UniProtKB/TrEMBL annotation:
V-ATPase is a heteromultimeric enzyme made up of two complexes: the ATP-hydrolytic V1 complex and the proton translocation V0 complex. The V1 complex consists of three catalytic AB heterodimers that form a heterohexamer, three peripheral stalks each consisting of EG heterodimers, one central rotor including subunits D and F, and the regulatory subunits C and H. The proton translocation complex V0 consists of the proton transport subunit a, a ring of proteolipid subunits c9c'', rotary subunit d, subunits e and f, and two accessory subunits. GO terms for molecular function: proton-transporting ATPase activity, rotational mechanism. This is V-type proton ATPase subunit C. Keywords: Hydrogen ion transport, Ion transport, Transport. Subunit of the V1 complex of vacuolar(H+)-ATPase (V-ATPase), a multisubunit enzyme composed of a peripheral complex (V1) that hydrolyzes ATP and a membrane integral complex (V0) that translocates protons. V-ATPase is responsible for acidifying and maintaining the pH of intracellular compartments and in some cell types, is targeted to the plasma membrane, where it is responsible for acidifying the extracellular environment. Subunit C is necessary for the assembly of the catalytic sector of the enzyme and is likely to have a specific function in its catalytic activity. Coiled coil: none annotated. One of its GO terms (cellular component) is vacuolar proton-transporting V-type ATPase, V1 domain. It comes from Champsocephalus esox. Gene3D superfamilies: 3.30.70.100, subunit c (vma5p) of the yeast v-atpase, domain 2, Vacuolar atp synthase subunit c, domain 1. SUPFAM superfamilies: Vacuolar ATP synthase subunit C (SSF118203). Belongs to the V-ATPase C subunit family. Pfam families: V-ATPase_C.
Amino acid sequence: MSVSLRWSCCSDFPTLTVGLTQHCHEDNLTCFWCQRLFLEDLDWRSLCDTLGVMTDFWLISVPLDKTSLTSVEKLKRNLAKTNLASCCRFSIPELKVGILDSLLSVSDDLSKLDTLTESVIKKTHQCMREVMEQSDDKVLENALANGVDLMSYMTKFQWDKAKYPTALPLSSLADIITKEVSQMETELKSRAAAYSSVKTSLQSMEYKLHLQTCSLNDIVRKEDLVTSEHLTTLLVLVTRGSYLQWERTYESFSQFVVPRSSRKLYEDGERGVFSVTLFKRAVCEFKAKAQESKFTVREYSFDLEAKQQQERQQRSVHKKEQYGIFVRWLKVNFSQVFIAWIHLKALRVFAESVLRYGLPVNYQALLLHTDKKRSKKLREDLASLFKHLDPTASNSKTDVSFDIPGLCQPEYLSYICFYLNTNLLELS
């Protein structure tokens, strides 16, 4: 025996969704979206999103005629009974309609802008993943809209009248979003390139566990080096199999090498570091002969190493500063572009509703939340419930593909439906 616990994010529809099923003999809750078991006090919706359940959000619009209202009520009952989706009212304010020709043009522009905005959202999120270098669920925790998770923002959407004044015509609102999104895309490219340059610069200087390139400060002591007006000490890298050859030949590389001056200072699994003292005027000659014998000479200076170490530290500090600045910018701008995207969806619903259902403006927008397994059955139910809106539509059009980003229908549907592609964040 099981008890259904209903939940809806919208108080207007308090019993639309069967969200969790609790079995009397268990203390666990089962999420009907993904069939995972959770403790009773956990937020199942947040966990589903964080764990990357393949979910769909559909933004539909139907006119408020008597038949459609009856169909909406029937839809509520069906959803509560079948668990096909959750549903909440999606609030869109009254906007300026304008003339029909202008509305048609704006509708086309909004479709193109939708594609651009989705692309910028995806690029911003991908950049967050690369910069933060954390697991997907940790990155997703930082992908917020107006300080809340993306699902909460969509299900409790409120139009931002300060940012997008409803007194402006649709074309002007579209221009605001276009300018905002384009500016974010441009700045994202420049900031990502600048941060990548800082990161690459530091990586090129960071300590590498190889004697040819690593810092020798921890290997060489001051007493290992002989420095005077005429003498200097060179450090030579010798492979482990060539130690005997080195000992036999290094004095022959120049007549100005100090006899028996070579000392092994350090070795790793592949090679050793040997010191050799010679006159400064013989350095070039010694290097050439050493190279012929496949020995690598590294000149060393405490002052140079200290300077390089200081530069590495400065670049490391600079990278940390730039990391913080860039991550904060990414969080803020991800939020802004996502908010702009949802407002854009609202604009598209409004424009299409006026074009489809006519004046006066009289429609209802609903946000449906389903999953991949239930989407086909939900499409069939919606087609059946709202077939009166297009009596000439054939039954073959009820089973449609959702492959076009932004739109539910590559073919004509009797109701208006836009697809909110949350999987563009690659949650799966």
